[in-house]
Amino acid sequence: MEGIPHPIPRTVEEVFSDFKGRRSGLIKALTHDVEKFYQQCDPEKENLCLYGLPNETWEVNLPVEEVPPELPEPALGINFARDGMQEKDWLSLVAVHSDSWLLAVAFYFGARFGFGKSERKRLFQMINDLPTIFEVVTGSVKQSKDQSATQNNSSKSKSSGKSRQSESQPKGVKMSPPPKDDDESGEEEEEDDEQGATCGACGDNYGADEFWICCDVCERWFHGKCVKITPAKAEHIKQYKCPGCSSKRARV
Fold first, then answer.
1. Which residue among 44, 102, 176, 211 is least enclosed by CB atoms within 10 Å?
2. Measured between alpha carbons, how far is 217 from 220 in angstroms, rounded to an integer?
3. Which candidate, 63, 75, 60, places its Cα nearest to that of 30?
4. Confidence of residue 28 (pLDDT cuts 50, 70, 90)
């Protein structure tokens, strides 16, 4: 959480410099300082965020209390997912959210100070010339634009059906099944169990059109939105522990 002692960027070059400083701090947290970062993301604590600062440093802290905040806020509750995933998968997930946060901050400044179409385009091109935090953390090599476009077009036709299935049913995580595509044997029994279930966080009843996830420890069901888990996040979770069970494990 930053108190904005840094000068507010107003030009494309200043916004890009701010972006690079924050990016360097985040990369440092997820690579060179990874052990320190891991220890600070204690699941027993409240919702924590990873902040990159313009002076190339980083901090793990609670979100700002000001509403609306001075700047867009990073992903909330990164500490809750720490012990429910492999470390490299967790770091990759934090990296992806850090990339999106950096873009949000940069274009917030652009909107605030009235960047036009050409200025926004120039800012994005400057940002796009740098590897993403995810690419740095995972060590993946960025493909050329032509290769990426070709792959994306071919993969859309081949895997559009599979991707929906994998998003709704990641490995190792209990979630509500897709409506009608599953085998019919045992389907009615499973639907009865889930329709009688209530969310362990908000207490609302099961809804077939909502994403749900089950804790592998206490076996209670939760709305994904209540525990801040999306289908995309769930794909990386080997064993899901709800915030309550994560806290219990941390105290033992």
1. 44
2. 8
3. 60
4. very high
Q: Which two tokens stand for residue 191?
A: 């639907």
Contact at 8 Å (CB) between 47 and 60?
no
Find out whether 197 and 217 touch, Cβ atoms under 8 Å. no
Six-digit token pair at 106?
């940069």
Contact 235, 167 (CB under 8 A): yes
SS3 85: strand
**Count of residues making up the chain:** 252
Helix 87-112 and helix 117-128: axis angle, to 10°?
Answer: 160
3-class state of residue 212 by DSSP: strand
Strand partners, 214: 174, 221
Return the structure tokens found at 44: 């027993």
Q: Exposed, middle or buried by CB within 10 Å (0-12, 13-18, 19+), for 189?
A: exposed
In this prediction, residue 201 has a pLDDT band, given cuts at 50, 70 and 90, of confident
State the pTM of this model. 0.56
Q: Please measure the distance between the N-terminal and C-terminal CA atoms of the chain and give it in whole angstroms.
A: 29
Query: What pLDDT score was predicted for residue 160?
Result: 42
Segment 188-197 long-range contacts (CB within 8 Å, at least 24 positions apart):
194/221, 197/221
Which amino acid is located at 124 in the chain? F
Q: Taken in order 148, 149, 152, 154, is the CA torsion positive or negative?
A: negative
